[in-house]
Amino acid sequence: MVGKYQDAAIGGFISTIGILDQPIHDITFQGNITNDSLHTDVTIEDPSYKSHIIAAVSLAEPMTIHSKMELADFNAGNFLELDSTFY
Which helix (H) or strand (E) holds 82? Predict the structure, then answer.
């Protein structure tokens, strides 16, 4: 621990990352951590894996975790190398 009151922010852009041998493009992320909380926001603009993920963790007693996930056109079959065709 450095100092008495932490308040750090991180943000960035990942043009391409490989997960399970599948490339995922255009990922934007932001995060903030303080003494008693952690907040993250991730957006994936890849046409095959469009999603928006938000998470908040309260580190104060009692510890609580909130998350929200929106998947639009997330091609899970492609990602997991399975047939996702609906008959």
Answer: none
